[in-house]
Amino acid sequence: MKTLNIDVAVIGSGSAGLPAFRAAKAAGASVVLIEGGAYGTTCARVGCMPSKLLIAAAEAAHAARNTAPFGVHVDGGVRIDGREVMARVKRERDRFVGFVVESTESIPAEERLIGYAKFIDDNVLEVGDHTRVHAKSIVIATGSSPYVPAMYQALGERAVVNDDVFAWDDLPRKVAVVGAGVIGLELGQALAWLGVDVTMLGARGRVGPLSDPAIKDYARRVFSDSFRFEANAQVEAATREGDSVHLRYRDSAGNLRDDTFDYVVVTAGRRPNMDKLALHNTTLELDARGVPVFDPVTLQAGNHAVFIAGDANNVLPLLHEAADEGRMAGHNAAQYRNASPALAPLVRRAPISLVFSEPGIAMVGARHADLAAGSFVTGEVSFEDQGRSRVMLRNRGLMHVYVDAASRRFVGAEWIGPDAEHIAHLLSWALQMNLTVDAMLAMPFYHPVVEEGLRTALRNAAAQLTAA
Ligand SMILES: Cc1cc2nc3c(=O)[nH]c(=O)nc-3n(C[C@H](O)[C@H](O)[C@H](O)COP(=O)(O)OP(=O)(O)OC[C@H]3O[C@@H](n4cnc5c(N)ncnc54)[C@H](O)[C@@H]3O)c2cc1C
């Protein structure tokens, strides 16, 4: 067993670990990057990128099927070749992964260790069975893994998660998607538009991250046009029948249903990867999920020289948040080279989250559920009669913008609608600049654009404030 003495050890070479490594180095520390799995990151390998590639194919199919209202006829059917679809998803995905692997492997070999890290004590790690790392500080950036309830684990390879979907060589005929979170909705709609018979079994009426009841209801209706959507389902039994899976579930109306699927795609949430870390060997305080209790501002676990970033801490499991957290964790970990480390706070950007469905779901700033009743007004726009949206025949959507009643500042928005990913950026920038609804309305709006819908919602909020 080799021994390595180092300032900072970063566990995990994902979207949080890589920036942590670079930030610690930039701060002047000696650093080692430890990876137990494959280089390339979850985002590029089995997350953001392959999901968007699958969605792009689905959108092409959907557009091709829906040309007739424009007087444009695709004579003959639209044929989807599942093998070609999956081949492109994997080919392009591998290209993205290749860039990340290349960049990771450009880190000098002596600064990288291959193998899973486990804690021996608060400052000592064992990597694989070959190296003991004595570190002044440690960044845990181990990411997360799909949670598969026991009921589905018993189905063997017929219960799949996102990683498996992106490894398919062909598209299946019929699937159940269990869980209507962001990943479930994205995969469910994409598979449905690619001709797969999809049943989505959600729980507690959840529709992605939405918390505004009116927007949630609208979104539920939209998705019900793409696939059978049981937002309030209860699965009572899951059994393997040869190469199929039989599910018995109560639908949203409480009726008992039986159905058979090729696969169950389990999108029931993700759990931080703590299992291989042997945290019981440390004096770190752990929460109920076994994750070290940490300060979300400095990312420090208690007053230990341990920092936790990215999906591993499960605060905001998004790529840009993982990168920001990684940078800050790496920077702060490097301060432990000094006798009295001065930690910097993580200044978070305005909250933004998206579901890459069509129409898209977006949330910016405060969630509706977190706003104090009576403290805000809600400006609304329906995209059904919105000029540009109707021109493009993408006129489905409902937006709510929330404006603080006292300061007239924009505080948040939830919606489903066309071009949501772009409007979400405008709104998150406005939020981060602390703009009032009046300052936002003083900005330019070209004509005819979907953003004119946003202007209607803002005007609606401003009028309510003026009338009050
Ligand atoms: C299907 C899907 C779609 C997504 N789409 C989006 C999107 O559109 N936009 C967005 O912002 N986010 C999206 N995300 C979320 C995003 O991918 C994650 O937030 C991000 O990848 C988290 O990065 P990370 O560094 O925390 O984890 P990872 O990139 O998973 O890195 C963790 C690394 O740690 C390694 N590791 C674990 N344990 C150990 C150990 N004990 N020792 C050594 N190494 C270890 C793992 O092998 C892994 O390489 C998506 C996720 C999924 C699953």
TrEMBL record:
Positions of the Pyridine nucleotide-disulphide oxidoreductase dimerisation domain: 354-457
A family per Pfam: Pyr_redox_dim
Broad enzyme group: oxidoreductase
UniProt keywords, alphabetically: FAD, Flavoprotein, Oxidoreductase
UniProt keyword Zinc, yes or no: no
Keyword ATP-binding: no
GO molecular function: dihydrolipoyl dehydrogenase (NADH) activity
Domain FAD/NAD(P)-binding span(s) in chain numbering: 7-326
InterPro entries registered for this protein in UniProt: FAD/NAD-bd_sf (IPR036188), FAD/NAD-binding_dom (IPR023753), FAD/NAD-linked_Rdtase_dimer_sf (IPR016156), Pyr_nuc-diS_OxRdtase (IPR001100), Pyr_nucl-diS_OxRdtase_dimer (IPR004099)
EC number(s) on file: 1.8.1.4
Names of the cofactor(s): FAD
Family designation: Belongs to the class-I pyridine nucleotide-disulfide oxidoreductase family.
PANTHER family attached to this UniProt entry: MERCURIC REDUCTASE (PTHR43014), PYRIDINE NUCLEOTIDE-DISULFIDE OXIDOREDUCTASE RCLA-RELATED (PTHR43014:SF4)
Protein name per Swiss-Prot or TrEMBL: Dihydrolipoyl dehydrogenase
Annotated organism of origin: Paraburkholderia bengalensis
